[in-house]
């Protein structure tokens, strides 16, 4: 196995951990889209959102107009 394959394998394992929202029974209301330059690149859990709110100079957190709940997190 080449070093590129090893790195790719590690990256794939990490990506699978990030994408465990779909497998772990987390409800849709507990996650928010994570958007970079207009493209959704991932999802953020509500408990992580609390930490991101501490860095308004980095993350722009927009509220949904109807529900007044966070709908998207921008960087």
Automatic annotation (TrEMBL):
Name recorded for this polypeptide: Uncharacterized protein, isoform E
Database matches in InterPro entries: DUF4743
Gene Ontology molecular-function annotations: hydrolase activity
Enzyme class at the top of the EC tree: hydrolase
The species this protein was found in: Drosophila melanogaster (Fruit fly)
Domain (DUF4743): residue spans on this chain: 12-65
Gene that specifies this protein: Dmel\CG12567
Pfam families reported in the protein's UniProt record: DUF4743 (PF15916)
Enzyme Commission number(s) from the entry: 3.6.1.58
Superkingdom of the source species: Eukaryota
Keywords: Hydrolase
